[in-house]
Specification:
This protein is 35% helix and 34% strand. It is an alpha+beta fold and 98 residues long. The radius of gyration is 13 Å and the shape is globular. Pfam families: ABM (PF03992).
Length: 98
């Protein structure tokens, strides 16, 4: 299993717009992808214009399919990308799961 974590700083005043795009994307992208095991996006009420993505994929090929999808290209690489200041991509590999 491959886990991806993305802390994302949004441009000021774009929290609502970013959340709307993520809500639109979830069922079209991750919700329709066989290899996407989970897709979670968190907001921090004390930190405006910030989102944390935590995603789990069966393997690297599943992640590549996810980022190659039409929904991802339109909504995340397209509209969402215009709203961010910066993000960090952190890969994690599962060690223990109960």
């Amino acid at each position: 299993m491959l886990a991806k974590v993305f802390p994302i700083k949004l441009k000021d005043g774009n929290q609502a717009a970013a959340e709307a795009i993520v809500q639109e994307f979830a069922p079209k992208g991750p919700g329709a992808e066989e290899g996407t095991l989970s897709f979670r996006v968190y907001r921090d009420p004390s930190n405006p214009d910030y989102l944390l993505f935590v995603e789990h994929f069966a393997d690297q090929a599943a992640y590549d399919a996810h980022t190659g999808s039409a929904a991802y290209k339109e909504l995340i690489a397209g509209r969402f990308a215009d709203l961010i200041v910066e993000f960090v991509e952190v890969d994690h590999h599962l060690l223990v799961s109960l």
